[in-house]
Design a protein that fits this description.
With 427 residues, the protein is an alpha/beta fold. It is built from 17 helices and seven strands. It has a seven-stranded mixed beta sheet with strand order 3-2-1-4-5-6-7, with helices on both faces. Helix 14 links the parallel strand 4 and strand 5. It is globular.
Length: 427
């Protein structure tokens, strides 16, 4: 499939979108785009994070003849004419201000090595620090994305993220009903309205407390995310774990990333420079400020469903539910096609028992709209209005929205019922 680029975007952005896609999606640069990027590099228009992300993608793909001009952006000797490029010299040129250990890790990645859990943890400590080295941050984020992260790398970096949680969110969780953590994607929704607050209300009616992890949208879909919708709802953000001792709010408790972990929130600005979604887009949903027994999340593309389930197990959740092939950018279920529910329940010996269900909304509802949800314009304010209307009257008057709420609640009910029957010690 040809990559369609917006020529109004900076050359480095178009470059990352071309070479930083992944194993199967990355494409060669055109000679014109390669020259534009070279000229911007020479004139200092490219941020260190963007430079690191771009060259990580380019090197992972392999430099081709029409891209050779980019070698001239480096000091003499980095790309010798008669031999292969020197990874250490490349890293030193891209991230001269990064600590020695981090530059060593970058070289390891560029030369085809994976990281063990301990090394990934130490790398995560740097990534989430305020030390200099954004060139290395961009390189690592891009290279791991293109190459695909291992489970050990995910776990090590996740452990480092956990240690950035602010003190108010480290206190013991108040006793009460089991907690379900709803891990909505942070990176935007651009073609359907979100139903998550209503689903949280439904889940609480089943005998749980629900919490939402929310944060600023780093893109690439910049229409809105759950945080934007919540801004138009009568809710407040938790100021610490002690808030869970209070009566259950109608839509559950909302945790804002900037309050829970300023270090992770800082990465939103870096990610807007590196363009493509890195590992942090996955891991940020799994931060555990409270002792949630169950996590519910989503993965649109098939390989990521299993990856989300594996990360959830590594993060220590007792019950796990991953919605696959749902509505992209949300945890909602589709109305016109089957969705998968990937489940995992921790057993008495610490192992996990896995299961997979298929949920077909049309069979449950006994009806279906003519098409899946398609809208010309979406606004967070209108999304909030639909949520409030449905909460008050049991219907919003919007067919797509109302059917999606009913289908999603039923899918959640089925998954939670299985978890309740299979998780050791739940409740």
């Amino acid at each position: 499939m040809a990559i369609v680029l917006d020529n109004t975007e900076p050359a480095i952005v178009r470059g990352i979108k071309t070479v930083g896609v992944g194993k199967k999606g990355s494409k060669p640069l055109t000679p014109q785009l390669a020259r534009e990027i070279f000229e911007d590099l020479q004139s200092g228009k490219v941020s260190p994070a963007a430079k690191g992300a771009f060259f990580a993608g380019l090197l992972a793909k392999g430099i081709e003849k029409d891209e050779a001009i980019l070698m001239e952006a480096f000091p003499p000797g980095v790309f010798p004419v008669a031999s292969a490029p020197d990874p250490q010299k490349i890293v030193d040129a891209i991230a001269p201000d990064a600590p020695d250990f981090v530059r060593w890790v970058c070289v390891q990645l560029l030369t085809g090595h994976t990281l063990d859990k301990h090394t990934a943890y130490d790398l995560g400590k740097f990534l989430l620090s305020d030390e200099p080295g954004d060139g290395a941050r961009g390189l690592v984020a891009s290279f791991l994305r293109v190459r695909y992260e291992t489970e050990d790398e995910y776990e090590g970096i996740w452990q480092a993220m956990q240690e950035t949680i602010a003190p108010a969110f480290r206190t013991p969780t108040p006793a009460g009903e089991p907690i379900v953590q709803l891990a909505e994607p942070f990176d935007g929704n651009d073609h359907s309205y979100m139903v998550t607050p209503l689903v949280a209300d439904f889940v609480q009616g089943l005998g749980f407390r629900t919490i939402h992890m929310t944060g600023r949208n780093s893109g690439p879909k910049l229409v809105f995310n759950l945080l934007d919708v919540v801004g138009y709802l009568p809710v407040s953000f938790a100021q610490g774990n002690n808030d869970l001792a209070k009566a259950k709010p109608r839509y559950g408790w909302f945790f804002h990333q900037k309050d829970v972990s300023p270090a992770v929130d800082r990465w939103v600005d870096i990610r807007r420079q590196t363009i493509k979604r890195p590992f942090l887009s996955t891991l940020e949903k799994f931060i555990k400020p409270v002792d949630a027994q169950i996590i519910i999340t989503s993965a649109f593309h098939p390989p990521y469903g299993e990856k989300m389930r594996a990360i959830s197990e590594r993060a220590g959740f007792a019950g796990i539910m991953v919605i696959r092939n749902g509505i992209e950018g949300s945890m909602a279920f589709p109305l016109k096609r089957p969705a998968k529910i990937l489940l995992s329940a921790r057993q008495k010996d610490g192992s996990y028992h896995q299961e997979e269900m298929t949920f077909e909304a049309e069979l449950f509802l006994g009806t279906s709209p003519a098409t899946e949800e398609v809208r010309e314009q979406l606004t967070a304010q209108e999304n909030a209005r639909l949520i409030e209307a449905y909460s008050r009257k049991g219907a919003s008057g919007d067919e797509w929205f109302d059917l999606r709420v009913k289908a999603t609640c039923e899918g959640f009910r089925k998954g939670l019922q299985w978890l309740g029957e299979n998780v050791y010690g739940l409740g």
